[in-house]
Fold this protein.
Amino acid sequence: MPNAYPTEQARQAARERLIAQGLSSKEWAELHELSPSTVYAVLNGQHKCLRGDAHRAAVLLGIKPTVAAPYTAAMAQG
């Protein structure tokens, strides 16, 4: 099974973007209404970022790609 965690390179690039913006992880988390501990965990590779706030943080940080449209049951049926 492939590694589901975001790569170190993606996480490092996100850290560098925060530095370039002049924001701490905590300030960035508060701007996006996320828990600072969740953002720290995403940046340190402690979450797989598959769902919930960790996934949202990873998308907003640019670690994971943006999803074009949500999956719905109607799409599954046909």
Summary: Helices lie at 8-21, 25-31, 36-43, 52-61, 73-77. The CA atoms of residues 60 and 66 lie 8 Å apart. The chain has a mean pLDDT of 87. Residues 8-21 form the longest helix (14 residues).
